[in-house]
Amino acid sequence: MASDDPFSEKLRVPEALTFDDVLLRPKESRVEPDDADMTTRVSTNVTLNLPVLSAAMDTVTEAELAIEMAREGGLGVLHRNMTVEEMAEQIEEIKRADELIIRDVVTASPDQTVREVDRMMERKGVSGAPVVDEDDTVLGIISGTDIRPYLEVGEYDAVREAMTDEVITASEDVTPREALELMYEHKIERVPIVDDDDRLTGLVTMAGVLARREYDNAARDEDGALVAAVAVGPFETDRAQAADEAGVDVVFIDCAHAHNLNVIDSAREIKAEIDADVVVGNVGTREAAEAVVDFADGIKVGIGPGSICTTRIVSGSGMPQITAVAEVADVAVEHDVPVIADGGIRYSGDAIKAIAAGADAVMLGSYFAGTDEAPGRIITMNGKRYKQYRGMGSVGAMNDGGGDRYLKEDEEDEEFVPEGVEAATPYKGPLSSELHQLVGGMQSGMGYVGAGTVPEFKERSEFVRVSSAGQTESHAHDVVITDEAPNYSPDG
After folding, report:
1. What Pfam families does the record tag this protein with (predicted)?
2. Annotated binding site
3. Interval 136-143 mean pLDDT
4. Which residue has the higher pLDDT, 192 or 99?
5. 80, 190, 212, 405: which one is catalytic?
6. Residue 200 and residue 230 in contact, taking contact as beta carbons nearer than 8 Å
């Protein structure tokens, strides 16, 4: 072709693949799927026990779902269509959930009346409280059991008369096991935590210890609190700083096209201003990865693959997801920077293919939008239940504050050029059931390849190309499905 045909030259294009275009090549294996270790890094300093994240979308992830994600070992990323104050409250709610040592302790004064403390405990939703003096020295503990007899004959008596003054305490370094043994030995349900001068610093409860034991695979920070993450706009330094002050572990720079020099400059500034890890996204090419890999703690990949995303149709731009992940991972692996594949995942097989292509974790939106914990409202259509699900590039989401994700500032409907739709997804029930099916399928994929860990799987896995006939063969075919499987639908 002549060199003076620049536009015809553009049509000599490379091939780009997505999930349905490939399959994992089965290999010799001794790995049983249930034994596959799913531990992975999502950013420089944050490790997850499951390589799964829920998307930062206002119909997917708020505190309730983020807490359950972290309890199961994954990570929920709070959306940013909320005020800074609401965001900080939700981060703190995540951090307080399952905490071993409660720091915001409800206390009583020895000079309060029994009636006052009873009403206070009812108002605060607690069944007992340490009794402390003005220096926070622990004098005793009072519970509903202590209070009940006094409500009949001495409700105006001082707390010092009703409290139990022989208090079993523990130090800051108490372990869940040690706390449980103290409670069992002394037949109590709460243990005040004190410093060397017997001043109250926290409280351990039986409920808190049992919650920690129930979620032994949870993703936790070095202090034992659940891991928290939040999305911020590419130019929202103040929001990122507020999230950092609230205790967030990972800040996601949330932009549809992060290979924008203004976005990159701002992301660098945010990284310099906060202690939390910073994940930059979204990108879809090797060149974009090279532009951010020197400062990013993680890179998020996905230009238009989501089920409610219309970016590729509206803008004519994008990159099929398997190729996008592979291009970014080729760069990131040289710098030991984790990669997150965001979008386009319909089945557990797609998720494990993304890992094989170089991702360290996957992010899903529609997969979790139908769960009980997702904030979308329930809709009934034709006798079936659905939950609201919308793209952050939809007009509704943009009106609620998400416009700058697509580098758009106008706030009138008629001014927006949306890159997403508002829709509904089938109601699915509890998040834990969906995660069980997703992770179980991913572990099966690791078993077929003979890999016991995520890093080993990334190294051992190989792809084969699939024809359109092969895609048809991969699905259930030539039958009428009578009993639907919990992890498969021919429509995705």
Report:
1. CBS, IMPDH
2. 254-256, 302-304, 306-307, 309, 342-344, 365-366, 389-393, 419, 473-475
3. 92
4. 192
5. 405
6. no
Annotated catalytic residue 405: yes
**Is the predicted pLDDT of residue 411 greater than 60, yes or no?**
no
d(CA 159, CA 118) in angstroms, rounded, equals 10
Give the CATH class of 20-98+218-460: alpha beta
Residues 312 and 296: beta-carbon distance below 8 Å: no
From 212, 309, 346, 465, the catalytic residue = 309
Q: Which residues contact 50 (CB under 8 A, 6 or more apart)?
A: 38, 40, 72, 73, 74, 217, 219, 435, 439
Distance from C-alpha of 248 to C-alpha of 88, rounded to nearest angstrom: 9
Reading phi first (left if > 0) and then psi (alpha if -120 to 50, else beta), residue 280 is in: beta
Candidates 2.40.110.10, 3.20.20.190, 3.10.580.10, 3.20.20.70; CATH matching 114-205:
3.10.580.10
| Structural domain spans, the chain | 20-98+218-460, 114-205
For 86, the token pair is 């609401």
* pTM given for the model: 0.84
User: Is 177 marked active-site?
Assistant: no
Closest CA to 107 of 140, 60, 73: 140
Q: What is the pLDDT of residues 3-48, one digit of tens each?
A: 689 999 999 999 999 999 999 999 999 999 999 999 999 999 999 9
